[in-house]
Design brief:
Order of helices and strands: EHEEEHEH
Helix content: 25-40%
Distance between the termini: 16 Å
Number of strands: 5
């Protein structure tokens, strides 16, 4: 079980990601931004809803609208470990978090 910090302002998308993580056995906390996040095992961020950066030493997954390639490039440059379109996050959320944890 991993402690997952989820930053996602979109309630529907956030609920889907949170539900998939809980079903995979993870403990999930939701946040509006990076303030107050207390040592998670992995950080998951909706890149279109926040300007959150990866946390030092914490594996991170960022997801974005598939049409927003600038956000993808910025996230990769910022150091997110895994960066995927929102549709892939919806389909593979548990596997993507595991992939980040294995890095």
């Amino acid at each position: 079980m991993a402690r997952v910090a989820l930053i996602c302002a979109d309630l529907l998308c956030g609920s889907k990601v949170e539900g998939a993580q809980r079903a995979a056995g993870h403990d999930v906390t939701r946040h509006d931004d990076a303030r107050g996040i207390d040592e998670p095992d992995v950080l998951v961020v909706d890149l279109n809803g926040t300007d959150a950066e990866p946390l030092p030493g914490v594996p991170s997954v960022g997801f974005y609208s598939h049409i927003d390639q600038d956000t993808r490039r910025q996230a990769e440059d910022a150091g997110f470990d895994v960066v995927v379109p929102r549709s892939r996050m919806a389909r593979e959320t548990a596997g993507l978090v595991e992939r980040a944890l294995d890095r």
